[in-house]
Amino acid sequence: MILSHRHRFIFIKTRKTAGTSVEIALSKHCGPDDIITRIAPDDEAVRQELGYRGPQHWQRPWYQYRPSHLRKLVRKRKIAALYWNHVSAATILQTIDKSVWNSCFKFCFERNPWDKVVSYYQYHKGHNRNYPPTLERFFSLGMEGLASSHNLYTLDGAVAVDEVARFENLEDDFARIAKRLGLPDVPELPRTKAGFRKDRRPLDEVLTPAMRDRIGEVFAPEIELFGYTFEDALERSRRKAGA
To answer: Which helix or strand (DSSP H or E) is residue 218 part of?
Structure first.
């Protein structure tokens, strides 16, 4: 998540939509008063190597805590977060003035859910040896809904941001938004969190009919909002598999 007072925008980071790449790129033009949340150490190393501004103003102020809670944090050498990676619009609204929210251009990215769920599973399986070993097991545990970000950019079911750009059109949409924000240039999107999707087969070879139907049920709000279809996701996966 980034809240830029300098350029009057709020970027809400959704799941598996190249959000870290967008965050790093946007931080190039952030100022000293802007809010920038933390990212994974490997990704933070990329941002540092590029010379961009790192995480700042994400901590909860000490005066908001009871003394007993503050002592516990000090003892454990922890810092409590006021803002974090995938913070929701609802939480942001609770912590900033409404005038700031209204004056900023608010945006995020979304992704076709059939492609998104598979990407989410592959990424987390690559990071966690205890993750479900198969996609079938992942679905049997009801974990497919973890990939959803609908609650991050909506309030009471209604879209709360000014634009939900598309992951499928990432570079063009990001360039257009960067120009709308009046950034000095369009920052290049670094490649992060790559290499975890080992199975590049088309989606009809990865997802069973029951899995496809389940994704359609769980992601019904996104599908209705943006007109996603399995056929579109399948066509895209076939193009990538043949690349």
So the answer is: helix 209-218
The pair of three-digit structure tokens given for residue 160, joined into one six-digit string: 């709360």
| DSSP state for residue 130 in the 8-state scheme | T
Task: Read off the pTM.
Answer: 0.90
Note down the domain range covering 73.
2-241
99 CB-side CA count, 13 A: 0
- For 83, residues 6+ apart whose C-beta sits below 8 A from its C-beta are 1, 3, 35, 37, 57, 58, 91, 92, 95
- Find tokens 């000095």 and name the residue: 184
- Note whether 13 and 108 are within 8 A (CB): yes
Sheet arrangement for strand 2-4? 35-36, 2-4, 9-11, 105-110, 163-166
**Cross-strand pairs, 9:** 4, 105
CATH of the domain at 192: 3.40.50
* pLDDT tens readout for residues 19-36: 999 999 999 999 999 999
Backbone angles phi, psi at 231, to 5 degrees: -60, -40
Rounded to whole angstroms, the Cα distance separating 110 from 84 reads 19
Question: Which amino acid makes up residue 82?
Answer: L
- Distance of alpha carbon 54 from alpha carbon 216, whole angstroms: 38
- Asked if residues 50 and 20 have their Cβ atoms less than 8 Å apart, the reply is no
Domain count, the chain: 1
Torsion 110-167-5-162 (CA) sign? negative
pLDDT digits (tens, 9 = 90+) for 214-223: 999 999 999 9
Which residues have C-beta within 8 Å of that of residue 166, sequence separation ≥ 6?
109, 110, 111, 173, 226
